[in-house]
Design goal:
The complex is a heterodimer of chains A (357) and B (396). With 357 residues, chain A is mainly α. Chain A is built from 12 helices and no strands. Chain A has helices at 3-11, 17-54, 71-81, 92-109, 127-148, 152-183, 188-193, 214-230, 242-245, 255-280, 297-316, 324-352. The longest helix of chain A is centred in the N-terminal third of the chain and has 38 residues, at 17-54. Chain A is globular. Chain B is of the alpha+beta class. Chain B has 2 domains: 6-65, no CATH class; 76-395, Orthogonal Bundle (Cytochrome-c3 Hydrogenase, chain B), CATH 1.10.645.10. Chain B is built from 16 helices and 9 strands. In chain B, the strands form 3 sheets. Chain B has a 4-stranded antiparallel β-sheet. A 3-stranded antiparallel β-sheet of chain B has the order 6-7-8. In chain B, a hairpin with a 7-residue loop joins strand 7 and strand 8. Classes of the chains: A mainly alpha (357), B alpha+beta (396). Chains A and B meet through helix 6, helix 9 and helix 12 of A and strand 1, helix 5, helix 6, helix 8 and helix 15 of B.
Chain lengths: 357, 396
Amino acid sequence: MHFVPYLHEQILSAWPVSVVVLLIALIGAGIMLAWVAVVALVAVWAERKVSAHMQARLGPMYVGGFHGWLQTAADGLKLFLKEDIIPAMADKWLFIQAPVLVFGGALLAYAAIPFGPKLVVSDINIGVFYILAVSAIVAIGIIMAGWASHNKWSLYGGMRTAAQFLSYEIPSALHLMPVIMYAGTLNLGEIVQSQETGLFGWGGIFGWYAFRNPFLFLSFICYYISSLAETNRTPFDLPETESELVAGFHTEYTGIRFSFFFMAEYADMFVVAALSTLLFCGGWNCVLPRSVQFVPDPVVFVLKCSAFIFLTMWLRWTLPRFRVDQLMALCWKFLIPLGLLNIVGSGLWMYIFGQVK
Amino acid sequence: MTGVDEEAMDADLKSLGFRVEERRTLASGSDELLVNMGPQHPSTHGVLRLLLRTDGEEVQEAVPSVGYLHRAAEKIGENVTYDAYTPYTDRLDYLSSMNNNWAWAMTVEKLAGIEVPQRAEYIRVIVAELNRIASHLVMVGTYGIDLGAFTPFLLTFREREEILDILEEISGGRLCYGYIRIGGVTDDITPTFAAKCRAFLRQYVPKLDAINELLSYNRIFIRRTANVGPLSAERAVAYGCTGPTLRASGVDWDLRRDEPYSIYDRFDWNVCIGRGEKGTVGDTWDRYMVRVREMYECVKMCEQALEGIPEGPFRAKMPRKFKPPIGECYFRAENPRGELAFYVVSDGSKKPVRVKVRAPSFCNLSAVQELTRNMLVSDLVAVLGSFDLVMGEVDR
């Protein structure tokens, strides 16, 4: 935001402003893409190692030397070199676009995620809203993939996604509301800054919104649950249930197109972990007060996100999955009423304890 | 459509009792959809094929279509000698080869009136019960996968691996053993066999408890399985269901106790039946849990049998050219999946005239069509998994 005029006036004054904006956008997109690739690479490897150790195995051990850390890169390379198959009866145009939309939706969200104060690609004032909005694009991509594949199992996957995404968008947004009420802003950076001090003016962990009042804590838990559903993770991985729908919406996808779906899943995981961190767990503020924090902000932030991602993996390798109707019942009968309750409860709490701004 | 044999598809549809027009219902704007589940599908456990008529997620009807793994196992029986048929029985229910070998051996022994040495009987009980544990472990693990829990699968397979190691030590095989022969067993047990078995059984029970904690009593798991697809005792009997599937429906029937063969009457153990603790009697949770509980009983039996192995020969004296007397014989044994029975007709030559296999999975499968009416696809998978079908046995 402040970067563009600065660059235009001070350094690249000879260039037209549109070119500078484009240049900045490209650089930003490049950084985001690189980061998503790193996240996917590390997260896939971590998932395999975590699952392996939970299942009394070792997981990848050879590629790259240290505990198979390059395994994902090797697998990625393999996927890139594989034959790209488009089924004869598929809707070719939609089939090609679907993975782009899914990955694009996941990638766009990164633009508004701050890794530290001002350390963000685009510091927009509606950050939370923006992330929720672009994440919904993923659902369209998955439905498209399900429809375009001309495979009944894919279609089931797409249908389940439609139902699941639309339903769980609501509780995840509702449970973010109390935080936004407290912070009084949709800008993620400002939300984090408002968590530097909290109860009784104490800093550190007491500033985190998750621990400000009981309603917010409940919201935190519920948001985490609905974020699992939004990222298709166990126990809500219904769109791609291997044992029921073969592979769900990506049954017919091969090679690089499949790898886009795969990367998008892990990219999404980081986004929801980042949202949990930024809104409920103090973002880049570590457990100690800000004045004594000695670890760099981005490191704290990424570590917190990693903790959430680990929790997600832990759940995946522990729990069975829900049935469709149970999933919907959980959303509509439990999470949504609780979301409304939390908004009212937090409002009353703010009013009674004089925390209204 | 390109490359599609329309006539063949129509004929196939007709043979399964569907109307030919139903194949094009999606195009005609109806909500009904015909979906082929299998023969290649992750949760049909082999090459079972189900043709589903669905309305959205709801399966209105699921019609099983079998025969994709047909290898003419019964016909082969007419062309090989009695002893040479043993390896073919391995391949019926390939997860419980020992039990298959044993049932075949006992059928022929009954036909020819062969007395089996005591040592062989004890060895047979031990290996058969170990194989039963291994077989149930596969069911528990794959059932977890069917319901989305991956970890129990690897934990159960690790335990199964230990059993396979033990069985490999005495038989040389890890899946198809051909160990129990007519008149006894192929070879004597190794000197370390008993100690290895004891060591395995000792550490096995706590691990089974852990798997129970992880899967069987998981709340999501219970919600997925309790009250789903209950099979009443009456229908189970009518369909000829046997083994754990029958016992889960509350029918107290186990051949090892009610029609004791070999030396099963010497052991102290219990028959596990479904009691509907989490839902209805005979629901999928019961069918699953009966198998889990049976594993504890297998451990008891193995331990008792290990204590009592007598000295002596491990195989009866058999003539070089074995020819049973003219006659016919039917014998049934309790296999991990139910009653495996052989009917064999002898004309006094070295080859049987007719071999008929009564496969438990085949009879159990017949109940699937009725149970899966009007349920969700997810429940269909849960029900199918709980029957623990092995296609090698269904198609023979």
